[in-house]
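Researcher: Let's try something more involved. This one mixes different molecule types, so please make sure each is placed in the same coordinate frame as the others.
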Amino acid sequence: MLNNESISLIKIRDVLLVAMPPDPDDTTVNVLQEKVLCAMEQYQIKGLVLDISAVETMDSFFARVVAETAQMVVLMGGETVIAGMQPSVAITATQLGLTMGGAMTALNADLALEMISSTFQRGQ
Amino acid sequence: MIDDNFGEIAINNESDIIVVRKTVRVEATKLDFGLTDLTRIVTAASELARNVFLYAGSGVMKWRVLKANTMVGIELTFEDNGPGIADLEQVMREGYSTSHGLGLGLPGSKRLMDEMEINSHPGEGTTIIIKKWRRRY
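Model: All components are placed in one shared frame. Result:
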């Protein structure tokens, strides 16, 4: 395999932190969706933080899967924060016409965790 | 005008999209494109390579270095012998997709690059040429 960069999932309290590799192929992106949704159910996760700070290329396929995954997480009762998009990726994504659906975004994973915990405090 | 730097990558399966991306990134980096342009070029290449794989099943991406008086550039050509595009105007419209995609691939890639040229005939295949230029230092 050319692309052996794998996704790492880390559970921190009731948040799932997922870090994407710099140049994920289609298979990796699809695996992400499956792994995330299974972990949501298995560990009773309330929020997903998708750290894309290492990602150098986000094309329409990758963006679609991310937006879909965020939507699926919402359907399962959780919420998603996409964290750490690089400036060059943000410029390119916008010119390409990509949107992240209704997912929340944060400057980095640290702020994303804060966003999720404050949402839960409000909700309780 | 044409440098001796050129090459080609066969697109036969999904993982070749990554090979295209990596190759384009390496070649555009050699030409000293800035990070934002580099990301634009690689992203456009990814869109068009995926189109080749998705619609034609296989094809090829050719790249070459362009040199003009005050500019250097990279040219990427995506060729396939797939079904071709019947209505070019339609595919350049935002949101049009035949594969349940976002329909951003072609119009989006055009915006990311400086030049785009599409030649396609139904039943004969499609050739798309994109170029990005940078002023010489």
